[in-house]
Amino acid sequence: MSTKGSKKKELGSRASSVLLGVSAKESTVSSHGSTLNEKWKFPIWPEWNEADINAEKWDAGKAGKEKEKSGKSPISHLFEDPEGKIQLPASLKVHSWKRPHEFLTNKIPVVVKNETSFDLFSANEHIFCSELMRWIISEIYAVCRIYNETALSNETSALFWKPWEHIYALCKATKGHMPLYNSYGKYVVKLYWMGCWRKIIVDDTMPFNAEDNLLLPATTCQIELWPMLLSKAIIKLANTSINETGKRELEEFTVLHTLTGWIPEVIPLQRGYLDKVWGFLKDIVPEFKLPKEKTPELDILQSDTKPKDTTVSELKHEVSSLNKQSDKPEKADRVGKGL
């Protein structure tokens, strides 16, 4: 019994020493600046489990139960992300945060409006200054093109990969599910991180700048929310990649990996990688070759544009006709003098 008790005490002392070590480390980091400390803090999001999604509470029922237990009213009737507001890149200056019902006046928000196509370029020029936003937009298009190459060529075909299917709200985790607008403001996003699919919870608060422009990707359909919700979850994962050099907003983080689980090869566009970049382009870009035979259309164009050759006989004829015209006035003068 004494040995067991001593072991428990030893384990307890080890655990307390570990906790003390962590707190000491955090205090050391915080002494250098709270901003650096916040950057290094991020949760380990739970692994994806469809049973959890099917049992998810999407409304304010949980807040009502807390009110009954505590006897106090909840602070807000809308869901707020327990992880707090997302941290946007330094190139985007946040002025305010708004809910959909605050910036979509007299309109009913939806998660998905157009199920066949989307435009993430026209309405987002003001956020192209951010490398992270450019990558989010371009990688969504890249994955969509890879998966739906045959479907895009035929407008009647259904899309095989839909970016909004990474979002869950008021729906079950089934194939081809459709997330719905949740007035409570709670959404779950499925993304790949640290070797498996993860469950990432976001709310529907959106960042705006001083000019009242939305600082997240959006489609040309103002009432669609899926690009903003998906981007908020992606930004959470991007913030785990600490920017130490200051050259890129992403460091080694790739949006493609979070959407698919694929491991892309990143080749920097720098002087030391020129040979590798050139070899990569030669492998994937088809080599241009001049056509061996001229097409009939090209021959016709060349014949129309080519100046005609003038023969010697034609020149002699033109010269003789000019001489005859020049002789006529002289003959007229002689006739006048004779008169």
UniProtKB/TrEMBL annotation:
Renumbered residue ranges of the record's region Disordered: 299-339
Domain Calpain catalytic: from-to ranges: 96-278
InterPro entries in the cross-refs: Androglobin-like, Papain-like_cys_pep_sf, Peptidase_C2_calpain_cat
GO BP annotation list: proteolysis
Basic and acidic residues: bias regions: 305-339
GO molecular function annotation: calcium-dependent cysteine-type endopeptidase activity
Domain of life, source organism: Eukaryota
Protein name: Calpain catalytic domain-containing protein
Organism: Patagioenas fasciata monilis
